[in-house]
Write the structure tokens for this entry.
Amino acid sequence: MPPRRILPTIVFTQFAGTSLWFAGNAVLPELQQEFNLEQDALSLVTSSVQLGFIVGTLCFAILSLADRVSPRLLFMLCAVAGAAANALLVFLPGDLTTILLLRVATGFLLAGVYPVGMKIAAGWYSGNLGKAIGYLVGALVLGTAFPHLLRALGTDLHWQTMLLTISGLAVLGGIAMYLLVPDGPYLRKGAGFDVRNIWQVFKVKEFRAAALGYFGHMWELYTFWAFVPVILAYSLPRLTVIQISFYSFCVIAAGAIGCIGGGYLSQRFGSARVAFVQLLLSGLCCLSAVFILQASSTIIIIPFLVIWGIVVAGDSPQFSALSARTAPAHLVGTALTVVTSIGFALTIVSIQFTSQLVKLNSLPVAFMLLAIGPALGLLALRKLVKA
């Protein structure tokens, strides 16, 4: 039985580290005003973090860093360095190029936080992996939403203060992981460097099914998160900036309910079934958006977006648990990293694709087409549900 402090500590450190993710998005209105950034800066800033994360996870996967270096040391170093890259936004010249480069660097270093945190959890929890990762990804969701809450509550805070606060939290999380979470009893000795490790994990058909389901999920997830403030401004134009930030936090943070609740349900029904149902529900939300987002009613829009927020993120930990269970035991870290890398590559395509659709069509139609990802993911996941 793991010590009681292990899971809460991992959850806090994951929350603290991943708060760096949308830090730039939360202060983007101030950055746009102060540095005269273009209106499409939202998609560029979001995609730059995703791009950095992809490059980082690819480098980590090729070098098998998550299997060759102490995961908690790697987590701490990346959390502290990511916090530094985020804080540099305050001290370097404020132009779009600098902002994008620093967001790329932050995304690169997050590759040592999110997937490595999952490996650390897998080292402590075996039979209850779906439940443990449910808490872990729930913390990631809260960390992603946290900058929106900070912006909503800190109405008098300058954007520089907000970024430095988020960076300080990430440093605290990295140090806590290193000092309070030793290597777990289920942590396997990793493989040595071999570029073929990346292809080896995909030879397992069960792993391929889990990965393809995850890719369908990722097509929808970060695009939805990135555009939540845009959706709120479109559907409820009377909302103030502070209200949009608060509701954005509520919608994104609601995903923690799906993650943690899905973790408990996976103990009874299995990770594959839980992931399938939540992916199905989020796909139905995509299709329903074309009608509901035009309702212009707070009573309808906010509950709908909260429900969408719950199910759009709730399947993520179960996909991670399925990937960890079906990957070769000595390549779990590499498997989680490379799958995450490919999944986030899809988010860039999805975000840019949706951004262009919004310009050409109405926003509800653009989000209806996000259902393509969940539909393809469900087809792949059927094999694991039957198994």
In short: The mean pLDDT is 86. The chain is about 80% helix and 0% strand. The radius of gyration is 19 Å.
